[in-house]
Amino acid sequence: MLDDVDRKILRALQCAPRLSFRRIGEVAGVSEQTAARRYQALRRSGALRVVGLVSRRVYGAAEWVARIRCRPDRVAPLAEALARRPDISWAHLASGGSEIICVIRAPLDMPSEDVLLRQLPRSASVLDVSVDLIIHNYDAPGTAGWTGYGENLDAAQVGLLTAERPPPTAGPPLPPTDEDAPLLEALAQDGRTTHTRLAELTGWSLSRVARRLETLEASGTLEYEVELLPERLGHWLHAILWLRVAPAALERVGTEAAGYAEVPFVGAISGEHNLMVSVIARDPEDFYRFLTTRIAATPGIDAYAVSISVHHLKKAASLISRGRLVPP
Q1: pLDDT at 76
Q2: How confident is the model at residue 142 (pLDDT cuts 50, 70, 90)?
Q3: What is the pLDDT of residues 38-67, one digit of tens each?
Q4: How many domains does the chain have?
Q5: pLDDT (0 to 100) of residue 122
Q6: pLDDT digits (tens, 9 = 90+) for 271-280
Q7: In which domain, by residue range, is 239 found?
Q8: Within a domain: residue 249?
Q9: Position 258 in a domain
Q10: HEC per residue, the chain
């Protein structure tokens, strides 16, 4: 189980994924060596991966959420195959193991021959498919994904972590060059790969590595994900809430939901239930408390449905195998 030091290290990484262990140790109140040792233990356990990814905005990809209802005896092979597709960025089994919920990254003008939309309904294992566009992501200020494990940092600690972050540049992110390929491949495997190792892999000087990273990060081309496996951290229940919200209340409800520590993702979607809220709880009672104290107290919600995840398949850049985050 996590202790206070582990929690502070996780929060520090979410604020600044590539920050030095010396600075992370200062925030966590431990030595540089202890911070590094604790991080490596979390990483080896499969509970944590830090990955560097090219932003989907570089190529104009939209995100679509698909709900695929299948025959229970045929769902596992289909789910595993979907999770390995590069255009699938997130996948879970839900509703007693008969429904696959996944997020697809594809352009708005997705071709009609797309495999997921065109071929899946022909499969004898697929009973029903619905696909909705994610039209807006709600990001809570000062957070970076799920923080329900606790130990929030104060403003001074967050300032210490983010002080060295390069200021963002104006304009849309630019596509990386062919020369960036080994750099980006290394960061996709481990977002904390050292400058020295990146120089070895690219054949560049240390100064060139540092300059290129700063340019890619500041332009928004290169983003980092701190992927956590909640089950390894004592949070065993993951649910998707499908909320129906009046348009006039959508911005307020979405922003409020994104601010809850239990919520790693909130998206406005194009379906009848127009708000998708991912919730991570310790157990059913914890989830019930969230429903009755958080959701029930939020005006503007007309109806809701719940999908309970029974098996995690994929996060943004990791497959989930035998209860561990692993590279795809």
Answers
A1: 85
A2: very low
A3: 999 999 999 999 999 998 888 877 899 999
A4: 1
A5: 62
A6: 899 999 999 9
A7: 234-311
A8: yes
A9: yes
A10: CCCHHHHHHHHHHHHCCCCCHHHHHHHHCCCHHHHHHHHHHHHHCCCEEEEEEECHHHHCCEEEEEEEEECCCCHHHHHHHHHCCCCEEEEEEEHHHCEEEEEEEECCCCCCCCHHHHHHHHCCCEEEEEEEEEEEECCCCCCCCCCCCCCCCCHHHHHHHHCCCCCCCCCCCCCCCHHHHHHHHHHHHCCCCCHHHHHHHHCCCHHHHHHHHHHHHHCCCEEEEEEECHHHHCCCEEEEEEEEECHHHHHHHHHHHHCCCCCCEEEEECCCCCEEEEEEECCHHHHHHHHHHHHCCCCCEEEEEEEEEEEEEECCCCEEECCEEECC
Task: Retrieve residue 124's tokens.
Answer: 């004898």
What are phi and psi for residue 163, nearest 5 degrees? -60, -30
Which CATH number is 244's domain given? 3.30.70.920
| CA 97/CA 109 separation, integer angstroms | 31
Q: pTM for the full model?
A: 0.89
Q: Is residue 49 part of a domain?
A: no
